[in-house]
Amino acid sequence: MNSYISLTYGDLLLASIFLLMNAVFSILLSLRLERQLIVSALRMITQLFLVGLVLKTIFTLSSLPLTLLVAAVMVAFAGREIWARQDRRLHGVWGIGLGGTSMLLAGTIVTVFALTTQIQPTPWWSPQFALPLFGMILGNTMTGVSLGLDTLHTALYRERAAIEARLLLGSTRWEAVSAAHQRAVRSGFIPIINSMAATGVVSLPGMMTGQILAGVDPQEAVKYQILITLLIGGATGLGVLAATFASVWRLTDNRERLRLDRLAAPRA
Amino acid sequence: MPALRIDRLVTKLIGPISLEIAAGECLALMGPSGAGKSLLLRAIVDLDPSSGNVMVGMHARNDMPASDWRKRVALVPAESGWWADRVRDHFPAKVDATGLMEKLGLAGSVEWDVARLSSGERQRLALARALCRSPEALLLDEPTASLDERATGFVEDLIRECCGKGMALLLVTHDRRQAERMAKRLLRISNGRIDQPSESVP
């Protein structure tokens, strides 16, 4: 079953009709959205054309250093995103390093595992497989880690009195923060749990939809989607656990103290 | 031999501070707001990093895990935190929480929610919670600040009882008359240092 239909540039132009219509409505109703609408559509088009060009070059060159470089750029953007999504962050280099490293470790372990034992392209790091896979895993792990860290830091700050009350009665730091830590881990897990529960009933995952449109047998597309979703769930969990444990370790010390002085003030 | 000995305690904000409290003695500590009274108490229980040495009996703070130290030296802060909803859940399972709460004038409150208690009742609950772990030294940060006369009486009786059992007490208070009632010695603190010499309360 191979019924892939190639699109022409004329098709794309035709597809933009309704969006352009929205811009006209915006002018007629003075919604003042037309500018933003057109600019963001043009951005989307340029960015995707560029990334298509970049990916095509990388796939043809098929070089390991170049693949690693692209992966590193992806990690850098995701790490910054984790940092930006927290209201209260760790001071200094820990602020971006701790979340970024947790995500990098979890994402790399799971991606390499999937490439070497399940998908097995030749070579195993083949950019056509490695980069999209790493990107999907990284994106979801990033969301989990940033939610987990944000919840943890806010909870430790707000519940300082309760945590110190436990420390004062002789609890260890891990006992004293356990409630806050559990809540942080849960909030990091919830997006992936919700999305797994709704997948196939409420929403058809984008990757699977894309494969089906490209003419792949739906049952084959489903197998790929299940593989990806399992990998994403695993990597998100590992990333959230690593990040929250590391952050508790950083925000307490071996004299069983809460060290909120290592937490930066929130953005204004 | 002193029950609690503090030797050249220094933190980022206060010190050096040295003082001694005998077993069964209650020492009052007074001083203006921001002088470092609460910071001193936090440093003694090792909740804030500090240098210097603190001993309780023969045991040095720096020679034992912090959790063991805090079982010997208890601090009841001016505003305590609560990690569980019910009053009972703040006590170890084997402790007779009911009897202790009765002694503090809070009979029957063990099954209540902490949220239902007034601020004065919570202050007494925090004291009971610390005492049921039988510490050797007790540091109290304004334990009667939001209490009426009758409740203050309950707390002061309990403090006397603790001293009677040989506990060393450090009482931070803003109430000069309370210091006179409870303590034989009074120290004043300002700008993070103890003012010398210490006063004897007549």
* Straight-line N-to-C gap of chain B: 24 Å
Q: Got a strand count of chain B?
A: 10
Give the strand line-up of the largest sheet of chain B. Answer: 6-7-8-3-9-10
Mean pLDDT of chain B: 92
How many H/I helical runs of chain A?
A: 10
| Approximate strand percentage of chain B | 25-35%
User: What overall geometry of chain A do the principal axes of the alpha carbons give?
Assistant: globular
Structural commentary:
The complex is a heterodimer of chains A (268) and B (202). With 268 residues, chain A is mostly helical. Chain A is globular, with a radius of gyration of 23 Å. Chain A contains 10 helices and 2 strands; from the N terminus they run H-H-H-H-H-H-H-H-H-H-E-E. Chain A has a two-stranded antiparallel sheet with strand order 1-2. Chain A folds into 2 domains: 1-61, no CATH class; 63-262, no CATH class. With 202 residues, chain B is an alpha/beta fold. Chain B has one domain (2-79, 129-197): Rossmann fold. Chain B is 29% helix and 28% strand. Chain B contains 6 helices and 10 strands, in the order E-E-E-H-E-E-H-E-H-H-E-H-E-H-E-E. In chain B, the strands form 2 sheets. A 6-stranded mixed β-sheet of chain B has the order 6-7-8-3-9-10, sandwiched between helices. In chain B, strands 2-1-4-5 form a 4-stranded antiparallel β-sheet, covered by helices on one side. In chain B, strand 9 (185-190) and strand 10 (193-200) form a beta hairpin. The model of chain B has no long low-confidence stretch (mean pLDDT 92).
